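My current task is to audit a protein record that another person submitted. Please read both lines and tell me whether the C-alpha cells look consistent with the sequence. Do not assume that whoever made the record got everything right. I have pasted the whole thing underneath without changing anything:

===
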Amino acid sequence: MIDRWTQEAAARLPLSLNEVPAAQRIAGSPSTGAESLGVFGGVNVGVWEMTPGTMRDTEVDEIFIVLHGAATVTFEDRAPMKLAPGDVVRLLAGQRTVWTVIETLRKVYISLHS
C-alpha cells in the first residue's frame, strides 16, 4: 500500500501481474495486477491493470477512470461498453462481466470492496 501522503503517478506505478485463473480466462493469456493506494473515508482507492485477452468477472461497487489502453466490457444486463483513456465507469456489485482487453488497460478505481 502507498502511504496516503505520497504523490504517485498512477500511470507509471509498478504492478505485479499474475495470470488470470483458468476458471475466469476465456481467451488469450491475460494477466492482472492491482496496488492499493489506501482507504479514504471508508472506500478503497487503487490502480488495476489487465493485459490483452478475455476474462469473466463478478464486480464490486466501483467507479473507475481509464488511464490508458483499450477494451470492451460486456454485461449480462446491458449493452457492451468500449473503454478508452479518460472514460469514467460505474460498476455495480454482483454484475457479471466479460472483459476483452485489446491494449493493456490500466485504471484508477474507487471501490467499497477490493
